[in-house]
Amino acid sequence: MKKNLTIFFSLLLAGTSWAAEGEKLFKTYCWGCHHQTAEAFGPSFKTIASKRNKGEIIAQIVDPKGTYKMLGYSRNSMPAFADLKPDELEALADYILTFKDAK
Ligand code: HEC
Fold first, then answer.
1. Which long-range contacts (CB under 8 A, 24 or more apart) does 83-86 make?
2. Is residue 81 lining ligand 1, measured as CB closer than 6 Å?
3. What is the tens place of the pLDDT at every residue in 19-61?
4. 34 alpha carbon to ligand 1 midpoint, in Å?
């Protein structure tokens, strides 16, 4: 019983911190160029979520110069965010993908 409770609470904590962390990172690093559902300098997270998977999103964040052509762009204007940690990248990608069905 004690073990189950521990698992329950760690899942709960992990679950809440992912979404919140992704939103925080988005506001810190991405919001100048990407908005949630409206086009800005870069495509909206809704547009991105509708056509990309997690791997493509993470690849673009860490190495846009290596992925922009593959994603169909003729030039690259997005800087690389190579210093983000693996769990921060996961959190950002998860956050972007929550906009898949956004209105
Ligand atoms: C200086 C502006 C700028 C910033 C800051 C920026 N981006 Fe971008 N982003 C762009 C532009 C412009 C593109 C279009 C492709 C390119 O230029 O490489 C793009 C493309 C993307 C794509 C691929 C779009 C597609 O078609 O699937 C993803 C994913 C993405 N950005 C995520 C992010 C995330 C996450 C952050 C924050 C960590 C971020 N971007 C920060 C400008 C920016």
1. 84/25, 84/29
2. yes
3. 678 999 999 999 999 999 999 999 999 999 999 999 999 999 9
4. 7
Distance, in Å, from the CA atom of 90 to the CA atom of 87, rounded to the nearest integer, reads: 5
pLDDT of 16 higher than 70: no
How far apart CA 92 and CA 25 sit, in angstroms, is 7
Nearest residue to 57 (alpha-carbon basis) of 39, 24, 17, 84? 84
Beta-carbon contacts of residue 37 (< 8 Å; ≥ 6 apart): 44, 45, 46, 99, 102, 103
Structure-token pair, residue 12: 């709960």
Residue with tokens 């997270």: 45
Our CA angle for 39, 40, 43, nearest 5°, is 55
